[in-house]
Amino acid sequence: FRRKILECNLVTPEELKKVDIEVDKEIDKAADQAKKDPEIPLGELYNNIYIHPDPDYTVRGCDPSIRVISH
Questions:
Q1: How far apart are CA 52 and CA 21, in angstroms?
Q2: Where are the domains of the chain?
Q3: What is the distance between the alpha carbons of residues 3 and 25, in angstroms, rounded to a whole number?
Q4: Which of the two residues, 51 and 33, has the higher pLDDT score?
Q5: pLDDT digits (tens, 9 = 90+) for 11-40
Q6: How far apart are CA 41 and CA 53, in angstroms?
Q7: What are phi and psi of 59, to 5 degrees?
Q8: Beta bridge partners of 26
Q9: Rounded alpha-carbon distances, angstroms, from residue 40 to 12, 44, 47, 48, 49
């Protein structure tokens, strides 16, 4: 994508560098916040994965034999 927008003169290398810096700042800020936030309870781990899951919809965890109901 970067190469293509540069080839089409849609952006300059300097503009892309500014975007990279802003993205890095945003990622660092989000990572710092995530490290400070408390861990969620295990009971919440599979909640709110999908907007409107079917009532009997299950989600596979790390162990393929274990399925959990998503709320």
A1: 37
A2: 1-37, 40-71
A3: 23
A4: 33
A5: 999 999 999 999 999 999 999 999 999 998
A6: 21
A7: -120, 135
A8: none
A9: 43, 6, 11, 13, 14
